[in-house]
Amino acid sequence: MYFASDNSGPVLPEVMAALTRANEGYAMPYGADADMEEVRTRLREVFEAPEAAVYLVATGTAANALALATLAQPYQTVFCSAVAHIHEDECNAPEFYTGGAKLTLVPTDNKMTPEALAASIAGEGTRGVHGPKRGPVSITNVTERGGVYSAAEIAALCAVAQQHDLPVHLDGARFANALASTNATPAQMTWQAGVDVLSFGGTKNGCMGVEAVILFDPARAEEFEFRRKRGGHLFSKHRYLSAQMAAYLREDLWLQAARKANDAAADLAHGLRDAGAGFLHDPDANMLFPTFSRAAHQRLHEAGAKYYLWEGDLDGADPDEHLSARLVCDWSATDDNINRFLAHLAGAQS
Fold first, then answer.
1. β-strands 287-288, 133-140: how paired?
2. 146 and 41, same domain (yes or no)
């Protein structure tokens, strides 16, 4: 009953096997290995972007911060959701790697709207040299509240950015889960909608630790390379990053894993609704925010369920008070774990 995070799940067997193979013999360092060439070719095919520049780093924070540093000047501001990962969970890494660019938070509790983004952009750039210059827009898909932007919704946000000649970054730590929940193609969800740079996640979806940064404008590539090296994120034994990403992309393993996670979350959501739980946000992918009684939370924790209590105090006095939780399914979530969780919940609710 482990639903704390998709970061907590195991590595895909195909990825682990690829790492074992990569450990045999010798390979050229710093991304000159054969697997990295396969990664570049495959990602360009997947995104229908033959000129795109492709790089690997080990963490999502590095991917986001280095991507934004390539797009933003130190005197600019990055426009992002008030609940974006780059704001809530990256310890000012974007500000650090950009050399001081600030974040301007677009009011939202899940997905940004074009209207809110436009208002936030209009609110900056009005003080001349005394305020920050308008800079990139950063969108997160899947959002930190479990929402998924459609290709049309991304295009609408990008259109607002383009009206002000601002580049767009997409934080796709869960891009595979977002794509699996739509009928769009990777190209439609990114550069065709107006995205300039994508952080393409692997770690949350079954890799050991690898993320890709895809720059759809190759003119930005040289700057990214220097920033990655200067920032300490160019791996010498790069083949261990390349091997993960290459295996992840073969035969669409990345989409298969995302579909498994999304399907598990849909089953869990169905069972939660049947048990009378409500939801803070509609679950679009593999992340759920249900609400149910404190007594049920207590019973689940006592039974060993692992998840984050989102709002409320587990030790409060009223057993019937509803508290919210964050539950995340990864590719390895099983029917048995889901059914055990729901059985404990039903037992406490009865």
1. unpaired
2. yes
